[in-house]
Amino acid sequence: MHARGPFIHEWVAEHAARQPDAPAVDTPAHRLTYGALGERVRALSAQLAAAGVRRGDRVLAALPNVPATVVASLAVHALGATAVEVNREWGPDVQLGIAQETGVRHAFVFGRDAVAWGKVAAAHPFDRLWVVHGGPLPERLLSDVGGAPATLLLEDGRVDPALPPAPAPPPADVSADAPALILYTSGSTGRPRGVVQTFGNVEANSRSIVEYLGLTSADRALLVLPLYYCYGRSVLQTHLLAGGSLFLDSRFAFPRTVLEGFAREGCTGFAGVPMTFEIIRRQVDVRSLSFPRLRYLTQAGGAMAPETIDWVREAFAPAKLFVMYGQTEATARLSYLPPERAREKRGAIGIPIPGVELRVVDEHGRELPSGETGHLVARGKNVTLGYFRDPEATAAILHDGWLWTGDLAERDPDGFFFHRGRSKEILKIGGHRVSPIQIEHAVAEHPEVAEAAVIGAPDPLKGEVPVAFVVARPGASPTEESLRAFCQARMPAYQVPVRFTVVAALPRNESGKLLRAALVESAAAAAGGGRARA
C-alpha cells in the first residue's frame, strides 16, 4: 500500500491557512482566493455529509469549467468519497448508463442541463441533485429535473445561502489506494469506460509534474481544457499542489480573446492539445500580442505535427514548450521532452517523468534493445488500478505491475522514446508495418496542408493501402496530383497514400483527439462499402 497523503483537498486547506489572500481559481466572472476556496470546500462538504454522503461513496459531476466544479470535487474528496467526472455534453442515455454503473445517489449538474437530467432522474433514483446555477433556482428549473430533490450550488462554489449551516464532518481517514476519481473516457467511439484514479495516483503524478515543470506558488495557468479531461484536471491538481493559481477561460471559440488574457491575468503557463495550437496558428497573429510572464507551454493529447511544434516554439519564445505523453490510465502523464533537448530529439515523446519507468517490449513482455519498435509499457505509482467494474478490460492493460499503453514506441541509445503509433492502428502494407503517424507528418509538411490523417483501406494485393484526409491551409487548394508528387519525393512508394481527400476539418472528440473511426466510415462509403481500417 502506498504511504498516506497529504492529498489534494488537504493541499488546499494548507494553502488557505498559510496564504488565504493568494489567488486560487478565477474565471472572467468569479475570483476565488485560497481562503475563499477552502471555506467553500468546508461548507459544501458539511452539506454533503448532512445529505448522507459518506467515505467510499461515489458522487457524479457533469459540469463546465466554473469554480463550483473545483469546489465540488474537493468537497467530495474531503469526505473520502469518489468524484465521478463526465462530459456534460454526452446525451441522457450515456449519463444514465454511467449513473447506473457507478450507483451514484448524488450528482452535481449544470442548471442549463436540467431537462436532460430530469430524464436521467426519471430512470435512476437520486437522493439529491446539486444544481449549479447563477442565482436562485426558478420553479421551471426545479420541475425540469423531474421532481428529484434539488439543492442550489452557485457557480462561484457557494452553497445556497438559504440553507442552514451544517456541522463540519470529522476528517475522513483516506488511504492512498482509495479511489479519488473515476474519469470516463469519451463515449463517441463506443461504450465509455471509467478509469479509476486513486488518491495516491493523483498525488504521485502531481508531484512529478510539479518537479519537471518547476511549478511554484508564483505560477498561474490559463486553462481552456475541460476539467473532466485528465489533462485539464492535471493542470488543476499540479497548481493546487504548488500553491499556484488557475484562470479558467471557456471562450476559446474566440482564441485571440483568450490569448489576450495572458498579459491581463499575469499567466505563466498554458496547456493545449494539438488542435488548440493549430487553431491559434490559423486564427491569431501571435506577434501582435504580448506574453510578459509566460514561462512555459505544455502539449499533450496526441501527436502534434513537427512543423507545428517548431512554430509554437518560435511564436511563443522565450517561453519553453514541453511536449508530453500520457493517458488517463496513468493519471495524465508518463513522459516529457526537456525543452533543451527539443531540437536534438525532434519528434520524441521524451524521457519518463520522475517516478515512472518506461520500457519497449515484445508481445511476450521481453524488453527490446534500442532502435527496435515494440509495445510501450509503464510502471509507477501514478498507474491506475484499472477500469471501474470491468475486470476483463483491466486485465487487458495491466500485466505483472506494468501498464500496457496500447502504443508502439522505439527507444534510442540515449533513453529517449519515440511514439510509433497505436498497436491497433499500425498498417500492414504488402508485408511492411507502417505507423499512420509517420505518413501524416510527411503529408503535413506540404506547404498547402494544415493537417493530415491517414487510415488503411483494404487492398486485394497488398492487404491494405494508406488513404489520406487533409485539411488545406486558408486560401490554399492542394490537388491530389500535387500531394502525391510531394509524397513520392519524400517516402517509399508503399507509404504514399493511394487517395487524398481534402476535407474542411478532421473529426475529433471533445478533447481534440482524432476520431479515426469516423474517417474509416467515410473511406468505406467513398469506396462503395469496402471496409477501411484505422
Describe this structure in words.
The protein is α/β, with parallel strands linked by helices and 534 residues long. The protein folds into 3 domains: 8-196, Rossmann fold (3-Layer(aba) Sandwich); 251-422, 3-Layer(aba) Sandwich (Rossmann fold); 427-526, 2-Layer Sandwich (GMP Synthetase, Chain A, domain 3). It is 30% helix and 25% strand. The protein has a 9-stranded mixed sheet with strand order 2-1-11-10-12-13-14-15-16, with helices on both faces. It has an 8-stranded mixed sheet with strand order 7-6-5-3-4-8-9-19. α2 (34-50) crosses α3 (67-78). It is globular and about 75 Å long. The two termini are 39 Å apart. The relative contact order is 0.09.
